[in-house]
Structure formats: C-alpha cells, structure tokens
Design goal:
With 389 residues, the chain is of the alpha/beta class. 44% of the residues lie in helices and 11% in strands. The strands form three sheets. Strands 4-11-10-9-8-7-6-5 form an eight-stranded parallel beta sheet.
C-alpha cells in the first residue's frame, strides 16, 4: 500500500487503474478548459495568515450543512457514471461518506440506482436531480428518492444543454463502454478494473433503465437521454420542483448574483456556487472568484455552499473563510474511488480533513465557525474589474 499524503497521490494511482475514457470524463472540462483550470489556480492566489501563540487545544472540524451535523464542511458532490470509475462506485462512495460523517449526493445519472444505494447504507443521503422534459418520470423519480429516505434534493440548474467536452466525444464515452478496437485495447490493460466490473451486474444508468418509459437497453437509453435535458427550464419550473419535493432543497449551478437572488426568492434552503467543474460554460469565472460577490448579494438570505476546484483542506478553509457554509468535492473523491474503491474515498476524506485541521490551527482558529476573512490574504482585485452588463 503506497503512502497517501495528498490528493495528487490518489490521482496518480487512479490514472493507472481506470480506463482512459472514464479518467478523461473526470479530468477534463469543456472547450478550451480555461474555466476547468482556473477553478483550481484561482484558489492558489489566496494566501493564509499565519498566527502564533494561540491555544490550539480542543480543535474540531465539525459543523452543519443545511441543518445536518457533518464531520467537516464537505459533502460528496453528485458525479455521474461513478459506477464506471469503480464497480458499484456509488455504493462504495456512499458508505465511505456515511462512515466519515458527511453527506453523499447521488446523481440522477448514476450507475447504481437510488434503491441500490439505500439498501446498502443505513443513513439518509442526498439526491441530485437533472430537470427532464418527461414530467411523469421526474415525479416518479422524486417519489423514489422520498421512499428511499433521501434527506435533501439537489437540483442542478446549469445543464439545460450539455457543454461540448472534446475528450468525451473523441473517446466515445458510454456506459457500458462502446466495443471499439481502441477502447478494448485500453480496457485490456486495466485488468483490476475489469475484474471488478465483471463481478457486478450494475453497468447501466440504474435510475433510468427500466424506469423511464421505453428505456430498457443501451440504444433506447441514449436516444431518450439526448431528448430529456430540459432547455425550457425557468424559475417557475424550479419553484414547482421545490414544491413537489416539499423538503430540504439545494440549487446547484449558481454563478451570478442575480441568479442567487432568484434562488433565494423561490424558497430554496441553500445554493451551490458552481460552474459544473468547468464542464459547461468555458470562459466563465471560477467559483471561488465569484463567491464573495454572491455572498454580498444573498449571504444573509440563504445558506451558500461552493464546489468546483476543491482539491485540499486549504481550499475548503478558504471557501469557508470567504463565507460559504459548506463545500463539495467531486474529482478529489473520484480519484480515491478509482484508485482503491471505498478505502480510496476514505483516504481522500482523511487527507482533506487533516489539511483543514492543521491549516486552521496554524491560522489561529480552533473551530470552523471561527473562520472568517481575517485568516486570508486576498489579492487586490481578486474578484476582477469586469464591466457589468
């Protein structure tokens, strides 16, 4: 077992063990990937204030997200195709999150179904919804999430249409993988991944196949999915979904102050400042760069979370110090999952918690609720001097 000290250690193992099409699916953005890159590089611009001679005993990373106790202000973000990164990936990830004491968010586009995950975990998890044009399917999907005991609904707003992701198109990304010569050559070199996949029956989108009308095989699935993302989504439909769920609701994909205000007005419990990990609108600003402006707009009206670009406990600290009440990791835990399953996800969480705890201490803080902008050195003009429309 290699010594794991940071997320990059897991990423190196992940790259060796997972087929290229699924590695590229996680480790890429849309178009030129400018936003994908800046999601992480913008965190590097923010520095921390070292403080000394402060009592550091009794430290804790525990806090709350949307009223739920969490071991640290981190949730596992919804990631599609987890069950292709590692066999039964959603189940492994949910178990790791449950044992660690943080939320797991199951994607609509998961390989393991809502029921699969619920049967193999003991605590409620969150469910992420992509808005679809098939309203009957959406209604039944939400009811399935309620029946499974999901404690929060995360509605993704920034995928009405899919951004062009060059690597996915060139790799012919699919679940299960398409049997091209290039793909089979690559798959044949990932023997551990292949052995695990042969031992599970879960290789298609478990929340869709057998549940959506007329979708019972891969070919019908692709045809159905291509037509389903709702380009007509508007705030009235968002309000209707919130009413339909009638529980804790989080709106994900907010990257503009006006959209943040609208999210607060429709009655959501929290928003996630997010650009979909740089996989949708390339050229958009990074989440961390937009966070201060959104906090100024709605920080006193709604709970604000952040995702896109977090790879360390220091990134979590910087987000919380700028006002967020919680953060989400996607790629950081996917690296762990692809590298070594549930144990790898746990490694990723331990790394991030250790970094958060140590950095808090060296900044002179003992608790998450003590983190504020005073622990940061933010460069002048960090938010940018952009001409507003």
């Amino acid at each position: 077992m290699p010594v794991i000290t940071n997320i990059e250690d897991l990423k190196r193992i992940y790259r060796r063990r997972v087929p290229k099409m699924f590695y590229d699916y996680a480790e890429s953005g849309s178009w030129t990937e400018q936003t994908f890159r800046e999601n992480t590089s913008d965190f590097d611009q923010i520095r921390l204030r070292q403080r000394v001679a402060v009592d550091m005993t009794g430290r804790s990373t525990a806090t709350q997200m949307v009223g739920q106790d969490v071991a640290m202000p981190v949730a596992l973000a919804p990631v599609g195709l987890l069950g292709m990164q590692h066999a039964d990936g959603e189940i492994h990830s949910a178990r790791a999150a449950e044992k660690f004491g943080i939320p797991f968010t199951l994607s609509t586009m998961s390989i393991c179904s809502i029921e699969d995950v619920a049967e193999r975990t003991s605590k409620p998890f969150w469910f992420q919804l992509y808005t679809m044009t098939d309203e009957d399917y959406v209604r039944r999907l939400l009811q399935r999430a309620k029946d499974a005991g999901c404690s929060a609904l995360v509605i993704t707003l920034d995928l009405q249409i899919i951004g062009q992701r060059h690597k996915d198109l060139k790799n012919g990304l699919s679940a299960p993988p398409k049997p091209t010569l290039k793909n089979w050559i690559d798959l044949s070199t990932r023997w551990m991944w292949g052995i695990n996949m042969l031992q599970t029956p879960r290789r298609q989108f478990g929340n869709i196949v057998g549940h959506a009308e007329g979708v019972d095989d891969p070919s019908s699935l692709f045809e159905w999915t291509a037509k389903q993302f709702d380009p007509a989504l508007d705030w009235k439909k968002v309000a209707k979904l919130i009413e339909m769920w009638d529980g804790t609701t989080i709106l994900k994909g907010i990257l503009d102050e006006e959209d943040a205000r609208r999210a607060a007005e429709v009655g959501a419990n929290a928003i996630v400042v997010s650009n979909h990990g740089g996989r949708q609108l390339d050229g958009a600003l990074s989440s961390i760069r937009m966070l201060p402006r959104i906090m100024d707009a709605v920080g006193d009206k709604i709970e604000v979370h952040l995702d896109s670009g977090i790879r360390s406990g220091q990134d979590v600290l910087k987000s919380i110090a700028l006002g967020a009440k919680g953060t989400y990791i996607g790629r950081a835990f996917v690296y762990g999952l692809g590298a070594m399953g549930e144990a790898g996800v746990t490694h990723a969480l331990r790394v991030i918690q250790k970094e958060l705890d140590t950095s808090m201490a060296l900044c002179g803080r003992r608790r998450v609720d003590e983190l504020d902008r005073d622990v940061l050195l933010v460069p002048e003009g960090f938010e940018g001097r952009w001409q507003q429309p």
